[in-house]
Specification:
Number of domains: 1
Oligomer: single chain
Number of strands: 2
Order of helices and strands: HHHHEEH
Number of helices: 5
Largest sheet: 2 strands, antiparallel
Strand content: under 5%
Helix content: 40-55%
Distance between the termini: 42 Å
Shape: extended
């Protein structure tokens, strides 16, 4: 990090830009699993409906991919506060 970069950070120029960028994500859901509700929210917020649409969807070969059903199961397992501390994911080759 150069002195100029450090000076900008200390002066608050970059932190206010970072803060504004993070404000877009505040109170946004990770993903809206109901497709109809997701489309309505997408139209209402002009594409800023959820975390994944703000930062960009996962891509494969340059094409945007939605989150799949098995990813919803994993997300729900991680978010719910149950007694399980560990989740085992077996990946098929």
């Amino acid at each position: 990090m150069t002195f100029k970069e450090l000076k900008r950070r200390v002066s608050g120029l970059e932190t206010t830009q970072d803060y504004k960028a993070l404000e877009l994500l505040r109170n946004k859901p990770f993903w809206i699993w109901d497709q109809h509700q997701h489309k309505l929210e997408d139209i209402r917020t002009d594409g800023c409906c959820c975390f994944n649409h703000i930062i960009g969807l996962p891509q494969k070969d340059g094409n945007d991919k939605p989150l799949y059903d098995y990813e919803e199961i994993l997300f729900d397992s991680l978010v719910t506060h149950n007694s399980n501390k560990h989740i085992w994911i077996k990946k098929a080759t």
